[in-house]
Design brief:
This protein is α/β, with parallel strands linked by helices. The protein has 15 helices and 13 strands. The strands form 3 sheets. The chain has a 6-stranded parallel beta sheet with strand order 10-9-8-11-12-13, sandwiched between helices. The protein has a 5-stranded parallel beta sheet with strand order 3-2-1-4-5. It has a two-stranded parallel sheet with strand order 6-7.
Length: 380
């Protein structure tokens, strides 16, 4: 029986981050004679660097912050409410994750006391994004040289790399036996850099069926039809869209607040929401409005009526926006992407989920074939 180790983000209180990690571990565990676990690495370097960087940024951009007092004050005012979701995340991880026996706080801990696996996976999410920063652990620099090394659905989050980034990636990815990427443009970029085949695969959350996800959900105690809003960005145009949609439908509107823009007393805010509650809220919603990639993934997977939005200004198929554009394009749902707002009738015909399901199943087969190929590989 082969032992599989996955390294990815999951020690951050983000719905997509935690659920993609659970999905990949669950998926591989069900695919044959394997023992699969998540390497319990907490990325303390990133957390500590982030705190230091915040202080440096605030000192350098004092003028900027003087003009953004509302954002600072709102974030501080709602800090206790926002932290109410933390125990829900911790309980979900405790209940559903299979973690390595060793716990690692820092990358150096991984190097000092690595666990042996027959196959190592770099997992999904933005594990290879230069915007977040390249972490050597996510390129398996601690792994046994004789073991198989693969990447399943990492996202690069950009549409181009600098020359320095390309040199680094070419060196780091040379050790991999199997490469894949979550987006088409990312796969093409990595293939051009490495000269290797890079398979486009689905995000792990889309590999788990809606029936399986529903076994984990906590249903909300909301009786009337509602619009669920899950926005990571701060842009106003999609809030205006939601206001118009609520008027046209007569539905109540609820927010899972992340952006400070949504933290206001006039909104119906949902704070006691962990990963299981997040899935339940999407599943029971009449309509979902989101600028989140994983908000979109679950909306599609659970066959919901939804509208997707562009979090960043600029090209809808460029940079970080490309993640949502690429998935919608592959599912033939680009009409559901709203890059601006016009005061017209905004409701659309229901999504044809018979058609979407056929496309999804086709992509699932490609992704499963990739994983089977990796799992059936013999040691080097």
């Amino acid at each position: 029986m082969k032992k599989i180790g996955i390294i990815t983000y999951f020690h951050f209180y983000n719905y997509g981050t935690v659920l993609q990690a659970f999905a990949l571990e669950s998926l591989i565990s069900k695919m044959g004679s394997t023992v699969c676990e998540l390497i319990n690495y907490e990325f303390q370097e990133i957390k500590e660097e982030s705190k230091i960087q915040i202080v440096k940024t605030r000192l350098k951009r004092l003028l900027y912050y003087l003009f953004n007092l509302k954002r600072i004050i709102t974030t501080y005012t709602y800090r206790k409410e926002m932290n109410r979701r933390i125990p829900f995340f911790e309980q979900f991880i405790k209940s559903y994750f299979r973690l390595s026996s060793n716990k690692y706080l820092y990358y150096t801990d991984l190097l000092k006391n690595p666990l042996h696996y027959d196959i190592y996976f770099t997992g999904s999410d933005q594990t290879w994004s230069p915007k977040i920063g390249f972490n050597p652990a996510l390129f398996l620099n601690f792994a046994d040289k004789q073991s198989i090394k693969a990447a399943y659905a990492p996202s690069v989050g950009v549409t181009s790399f600098t020359e320095t980034e390309e040199i680094y990636l070419k060196e780091q990815l040379s050790k991999y036996d199997y490469l894949s990427c979550r987006e088409t443009i990312g796969a093409n970029l990595l293939s051009g850099i490495t000269g290797k085949n890079v398979q486009v695969v689905l995000d792990p959350t889309l590999m788990i069926t809606k029936e399986e996800w529903r076994k984990l959900t906590v249903k909300p105690k909301i009786k009337n039809p509602y619009i669920l809003c899950y926005f990571l960005g701060h842009r106003q145009y999609y809030r205006n869209f939601v206001n118009k949609l609520a008027i046209q439908t007569g539905y109540d509107t609820y927010f899972i607040p992340v952006s400070y823009v949504d933290c206001k007393k006039t909104n119906s805010l949902l704070f006691d929401v962990g990963p299981a509650e997040f899935i339940g809220l999407i599943d029971q919603a009449a309509i979902v409005c989101t600028d989140s990639f994983h908000g979109l993934c679950f909306s599609i997977n659970l066959n919901k009526e939804f509208y997707a939005f562009v979090k960043h200004e600029g090209a809808v198929d460029g940079g970080d926006n490309s993640r949502i554009y690429d998935l919608l394009n592959r599912m033939d749902l680009l009409l559901r992407l709203k890059s601006d707002f016009r005061e017209t009738d905004i409701r659309m015909d229901p999504i044809d989920y018979i058609h979407v399901s056929k496309l999804l199943e086709k992509e699932r087969k490609i992704s499963k074939d990739f994983l089977h190929k990796v799992l059936n590989e013999t040691d080097k």
